[in-house]
Write a structure and sequence with these properties.
transmembrane helix, about 70% helix, Metal_cation-efflux_comp, membrane, ICMT_MeTrfase, transmembrane
């Protein structure tokens, strides 16, 4: 459980690094007349993702979940791949990346990096991580609850993001 706790704390630290990047990029976008959309769902997203990390730590302890190598090692590999995809998205979007939906009017849509293959690759990373991270230590209830709640949130989020990009961005 010690190694798993360190993994979850490393993911939490990565999320904090994301927030630093997002805050910097939000200031830049607003300075360029960036328009924010979807403020209402943002607090829900924060609570859901915080709950994922808490559940990852609490469920194995409270429900005495074992580390099952046949499940845990592949789940760890998927978690690491999700992190790599997430940072590929962040670096590809550069100053346009954000945890909020902020679009600078007239900005071009990005069609490079993982965006050549998927319109919203960052959300693939979120989905994979949300299922895989808890399963590293058999926290199947956390994985299930997060996945179901995240499916609802992503439906709202992707609609919001698509509408904002359609309204303000220029096709690549």
């Amino acid at each position: 459980m010690t190694w798993y706790t360190l993994l979850v704390l490393a993911v939490a630290a990565e999320r904090l690094a994301e927030l630093v990047v997002a805050r910097r990029n939000a200031v830049r976008a607003r300075a360029r007349d960036g328009v924010e959309h979807g403020r209402g769902h943002y607090p829900v997203m924060v609570v859901l993702h915080t709950g994922l990390l808490a559940g990852c730590l609490l469920e194995p302890l409270l429900a005495d979940r074992p580390f099952l190598p046949a499940l845990g090692w592949p789940a760890l590999a998927l978690t690491l791949l999700a992190q790599a995809l997430r940072w590929w998205c962040i670096t590809t979007l550069g100053p346009h990346w954000n945890t909020r939906v902020i679009v600078v009017p007239g900005a071009r849509l990005v069609g490079a990096g993982p965006y050549r293959f998927l319109r919203h690759p960052n959300y693939l990373a979120v989905v994979v991580e949300g299922a895989a991270l808890p399963l590293v230590h058999s926290a199947w209830i956390t994985a299930t609850v997060f996945t179901l709640a995240d499916a609802v949130l992503l439906t709202v989020r992707i609609r919001c993001e698509n509408a904002a990009l359609t309204t303000h961005a220029v096709p690549a």
